[in-house]
Fold:
Amino acid sequence: MNAKWSIALLFGFCAVLGLLRTDGSLLQIGGKKPVELNFWNGFTGPDGRVMLGMIRDFNEKNPDIHVSMQRMAWATYYNKLMVAAVDDRGPQLFVIHASTLPRMQRAGFLSDLSEMYQGPSRVPTEDFEPYVLQQVKFDGKYLAIPLDIHPQGMYVNTDILKNAGIVDDQGNARPPATREEFLKVISTTKKLGPDNSTNWGFSFTNWQNNFQTLLPQFDGKYVDENGKAALDCPGNIAALKFMAELSKKKLIPPPQTQMGWIGFRQKKVAIAWEGVYMLGDLKSIPDLKYVGCPIPTIGNHEGTMADSHTLCIRKGIPDREREAAKRFIAYLSQHSIDWANAGQVPARRSLRETDAFKKMPVQVAFAKQIPHMMYPPRTPVLFELGLEVGLAVEKVIRGRTTPEEALHIANINTQRVMDRDKAEQASRKVTQ
Amino acid sequence: MTYSKRRGITAWLFLAPYVISFCCFIVVPIVVAMVLSTMQYDLTARDKIQFIGTKNFTDAWGDQYFWMALKGTLHYTVLMVPGLLVAALGMSLGLNALTRGRNTVRALLYLPGMFNVAVTAILWQWFYNNEFGLFNFVLKKLGLSAIPFLSEKGYAMPSIVVMSLWWSLGGTAVVLLAALQQIPRQIFEAAALDGATNGRLLTRITLPQLRPVLLFVVVTNTIGGFQVFAQILMLTNGGPELATRGVVQYIYEQAFNNYRLGYGAAMSWMLFALIAAFGLLQFRIMRRSVA
Structure:
């Protein structure tokens, strides 16, 4: 066989391989090609596998649509999404946290989904908490469908509590519900471990999230009624003072130990505050006995921080793709009880009332906090605000400064950022 | 067509792939960054981009976080470059003195440099973990107290530098070893016959002979030091208390987390100017001493 024949044969072989692609799109002569939808999200953990299963089910039940999922770490997800979407190259479908919506909304690539809340096969607005719906509404338009709610809650190692004698009448571990109980439990369970290392009653996990978890309990806020930064308001200071007190009294591991969530996983920490989404991680540790509970009332009343994954469609996609994307979103919303298995609380009330959901004890416990939850502020400068809050919390926990001073500085810096953003937007309006 | 014309065309054809990629990925981005640096360009408000002259530069000049990041970058560079130079020189001298197994040792030393920086950082993150890391496990076994490698301001940057040294030492040592092997043996033999000690051989012959290569190592590693990004992002994400956040990370955050591309571009130019100034200064000082 000479060289020409070899090349021709190779070319023919490649052509056949191309025709036999897994989606078989080129072989569908005469048949209608399914609508291809790209769905981006940051579900890189066990939740991603659950979502993949839901997508597989959807694709089977809807042969005229084919959804492909692309997962990437949340840390870089929004950078990629933004760069792709503002240039009309992004996926047709994507997930955005409710707290990130203001930035994405301003970028102008989110499609108005108000129509999905209307008509006979609508996603019913009354099935959602008004507070949650408010997060996806901009200028009277709904730009997303909330898929879930993920509040911060309390994980308790029941073995440690039982060993410390913190039990109820039936001999079950009794998680703390008030400030006094919480302080008592974490002092009682702090003791020297078998290898001379300390076992801790409590450990902060994500310091900034832990602080934000306490804010609603102390009537804290990020911005005041006039839209000015209010990070140094009395409620925020009180919340941070409580955290500083735990550090000062050595009721938490020294800040430099990085114990946190790993400590809870390793059974060296009795109590940790984390999001409901960490449940998937705990499920992978078979001998860890734990329960999920609401955050104890440390402040004036119950409360916690929460956020939602919301489903969005990119603006300007062809009608056929848009209709397919809407069907997919409606499907995910209707079947979000399956999504709850990934360690989430469905955003829809009707699903939270099902027997299937009631069989998920951690999710049910975390869902009890829904009436008292507070989302991060609705601001396009969320990243910069978060950085200031995080820095203030870190400095206080490390004992470098007082809560008052740290939050005052954070407030000045945040106001400066907000003023800059406002000025830039104003100049933008003038030039328009 | 004449021979010289044909030769010229052939030369350009060979060069074309590089020239095209250089223009697309170096020249065009540089020009775009220059234009961007004079613009108020927010990805979330792209409908109206404004020319704002030098405002991004003056804003950066007055930005406390920019100066903090610059301090972090300088801290890294000041620890990294001399550390690398001394360690790599020592290692190359040791390798040069080896009579057997030199190639095997050289290959082993070069091995860490073949890891991706992300892999290296993840690995070292576990080495450094305060409670469950390898280093503190060993320290505790020896009856010593744990060191907060990445979670305490005083330790974080040196720990990052140690990881970077482990990662990049092999490559630099191999370069220096190659240079060492180029020094004629006769010079050493003549000096030894004249009674020169090992110390004098090092200071009077080896180091002066290595100067051009040392200049190259210092300049390239200083540039690399100013551009440090991945290892810091992965090991500490700029913490604790922003103590290890470098300029490149700050630029990245401004451009891609806050979507302020114009501001990020301006800071990139400021960093470029700084690197160029340092590079030129080093080059001049060392070239003078070489001459």
User: Anything to note?
Assistant: Chain B touches chain A at residues 40, 42-48, 50, 129-132, 146, 148, 150-152, 239-242, 253, 256-259 (CB under 8 Å). The longest helix of chain B spans residues 3-36. Chain B has a mean pLDDT of 91. The beta strands of chain B are 39-40, 50-51.
